[in-house]
Amino acid sequence: MTEKILLITGASSDIGKEIIEQTNEEYDYIIAHHNGDEENLTELKKKLGDKLIFIEGNFKDKDATYQFVEDIKKIGKIPTHIVHLPAGRYENIKFSKLSWDKFENDLNIAFRSLVIILNNFLPIMAKNKYGKIVVMLTSCTTNIPPKYVASYVTSKYALLGLVKALANEYADKGIRINGISPTMIETKFLQNIPELLIEQNALNSPTGKNLSIEEVIPMFQFLLSDKSNSITGQNIAITNGNIM
Fold first, then answer.
1. Where are the chain's structural domains?
2. Strand locations in the chain, DSSP E?
C-alpha cells in the first residue's frame, strides 16, 4: 500500500466535513462525495487544495451511483478507507402514510449506494490485504426505535446486515468493517424533526443534552486507524450516557 486514500460519502454533511477537518493529515488524498452541494466544502478545499477531490453522485439514481464509482476509477485513486454517511431525510411519518417510494428512496440512498461502492472496491482491498470501512448507523439498531421513522430504521438495519455479512466474509483479507450507532446528534440532519422532540431527547439524556459532532468523531478516527485492527463486524453504540 503506497497511498492512503479516504473516500467519504456524504462528505458535505456536518459530520463529513468534521471528519475531513480532523483526519486529513492521515491521508494522501480524500475523495469527498457530494450531491450537487460542493459549496459546503469550499473552505476545506481552500485549506487542503489538491488533496481534497470532489466527486458528485446522486445516490437516488442507480446509473448515477455506478457513474460515481467509474469517476473514482478514472482518477486512479482507489480508496483504502471508506466512511459511509448518506441517509434519507429523517422525518416523522406514520407507517400508514408511508408509501413504498419512501422506503425505496431511503434504501437507495443509504444501502444500494454502499452495495455498489463496495462491490467495486472490496475486491481491490482484498487483493491488497488491507481496508477500513466505517458505516454510520443509528442507535435505533441498538435500542427500541422511536415511532414514525420506519423507512429510516429499515434502511439502517439493512446497512447493519451488510456490515455483519461482509465483515465475516472479508475478515481473513485484512479488511475491517464496522458500524457506529450514535444517539441523536445536533446537526442540520435534524431540520425536519419538530424542535420539541429534539429538546425532549436532550432532557431524557443523563447529560441533559444531545450529542455534539465532536463527541462522535473520535470513534470514526479510531476505527479508521490501525489501532482497530482487531475489531470488525461491530455495531458500536455512542450512547451519550444512556445504558442500552
1. 5-238
2. 5-9, 29-34, 52-56, 81-84, 131-136, 175-182, 235-238
Residues in the chain: 244
| DSSP E strand stretches across 36-80 | 52-56
Q: Distances in Å between the alpha carbon of 95 and those of 92, 152, 230, 235?
A: 9, 11, 40, 26
3-state secondary structure of 53: strand
Task: Express the helix, strand and coil content of the chain in percent, nearest 5 each.
Answer: 50, 15, 30
Q: Which are the contacts of 69, defined by CB distance < 8 A and separation ≥ 6?
A: 116, 117, 120, 121
Q: For residue range 52-84, what is the model confidence (pLDDT) as tens digits?
A: 999 999 999 999 999 999 999 999 999 999 999
DSSP letter, residue 85: -
Predicted local distance difference test score (pLDDT) of residue 202: 59
**Domain 5-238 bears CATH identifier 3.40.50.720:** yes
- 70 DSSP 8-state letter: H
User: What does the DSSP 8-state code read for residue 92?
Assistant: -
Encoded amino acid at 81, one letter: H
DSSP states of 116-150 as a string? Answer: HHHHHHHHHHHHHT-EEEEEE--GGGTSPPPTT-H
Check pLDDT > 80 for residue 192: no
Contact 3, 28 (CB under 8 A): yes
DSSP annotation of 223 = H
| Cβ atoms 45, 52 nearer than 8 A | yes
